[in-house]
């Protein structure tokens, strides 16, 4: 399987464009985009950030993953748009092990073989004192690109993820100190990337802990005050 490198000006499946590329490298004069760079989205009228997903050969600039074909634009859309390359000079060739991983959901189930259902629930805790981060807004990005938003309960627990036939990697975002990748909840709260977790069989019912540093008092950030967090497209006439 080939995954082409994403560069400045590349498109997304929603018709958006990559508008920032923060690496020092380029392909045919176009800078290479990295995880966290901005992508416009004309559907939800925001600019999202690149989230790197799926099998890849490790390749980074300044500690950030190089963006590849089919990585995601994390914006306000319910299903995250995928990135489409605008060059065919440079790509990663994922070998058999990567191909098997990328097509795991399509693998046939052998008749009569034991099967598992995979799901999880997470508890968001302060990494310093272990206290639950109650009533914090959060988001879970499923392997399919689907965004699931919610608010933690009094014990800092998220909702139970809907079950899947195969284990998947999910990305967890929540309120707190700023990190490289961010997205915006439907209420306008800025959520930052906290963890990547792989779901486990439903029989392993224990809530999984996710610990990170948190502000003592969460604050709502102005939706247009800091373009480094999110840039919104201007309204246009019909």
Write up what this structure looks like.
The chain has 238 residues and is mainly beta. The protein folds into 2 domains: 2-93, Tumour Suppressor Smad4; 122-178 and 188-212, Immunoglobulin-like (Sandwich), CATH 2.60.40. 3% of the residues lie in helices and 32% in strands. The chain contains 1 helix and 21 strands. The strands form 8 sheets. The chain has a 5-stranded antiparallel beta sheet with strand order 15-14-16-18-17, with no helix packed on it. Strands 5, 6, 9 and 21 form a 4-stranded antiparallel beta sheet that branches. A two-stranded antiparallel sheet has the order 1-11.
Descriptive terms for the model:
single chain; 238 residues; 21 strands; Tumour Suppressor Smad4; mainly beta; 2 domains
- The percentage of residues in β strands lies in 25-35%
List unreliable stretches of 5+ residues: 97-114, 216-238
Radius of gyration: 19 Å
- Helix percentage range: under 10%
Categorize the overall geometry: globular
Q: Major sheet: order of its strands?
A: 15-14-16-18-17
Task: Please report the first level of CATH classification, the CATH class of the largest domain.
Answer: Mainly Beta
CA(first)-CA(last) distance: 41 Å
How does the helix and strand content classify structurally?
mainly beta
Number of helices: 1
CATH third-level topology of the largest domain: Tumour Suppressor Smad4
CATH architecture of the largest domain: Sandwich
Report the biggest beta sheet as strand number plus sense, adding barrel if it closes: 5 strands, antiparallel
Number of domain modules? 2
Q: How many beta strands in the DSSP annotation?
A: 21
Q: What is the mean predicted local confidence, pLDDT?
A: 76
Order of helices and strands: EEEEEEEEEEEHEEEEEEEEEE
């Amino acid at each position: 399987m080939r995954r082409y490198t994403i560069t400045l000006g590349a498109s997304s499946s929603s018709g958006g464009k990559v508008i920032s590329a923060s690496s020092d490298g380029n392909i045919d004069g176009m800078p290479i985009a990295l995880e966290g760079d901005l992508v416009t989205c004309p559907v939800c009228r925001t600019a999202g950030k690149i989230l790197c997903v799926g099998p890849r050969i490790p390749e980074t600039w300044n500690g950030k993953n190089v963006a590849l074909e089919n990585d995601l634009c994390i914006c306000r859309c319910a299903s995250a748009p995928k990135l489409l390359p605008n060059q065919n000079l440079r790509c990663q060739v994922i070998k058999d092990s990567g191909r098997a991983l990328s097509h795991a959901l399509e693998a046939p189930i052998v008749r009569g073989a034991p099967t598992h259902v995979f799901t999880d629930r997470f508890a968001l805790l302060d990494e310093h004192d272990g206290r639950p981060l109650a009533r914090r807004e959060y988001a879970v990005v499923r392997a399919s690109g689907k965004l699931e938003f919610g608010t933690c309960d009094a014990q800092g627990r998220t909702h139970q993820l809907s079950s899947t036939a195969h284990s998947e990697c999910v990305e967890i975002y929540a309120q707190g100190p700023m990190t490289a990748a961010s997205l915006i909840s439907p209420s306008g709260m800025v959520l930052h990337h906290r963890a990547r977790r792989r779901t486990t069989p439903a029989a392993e019912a224990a809530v999984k802990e996710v610990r990170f540093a948190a502000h003592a008092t969460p604050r709502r950030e102005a939706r247009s005050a800091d373009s480094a967090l999110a840039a919104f497209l201007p309204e246009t006439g019909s």
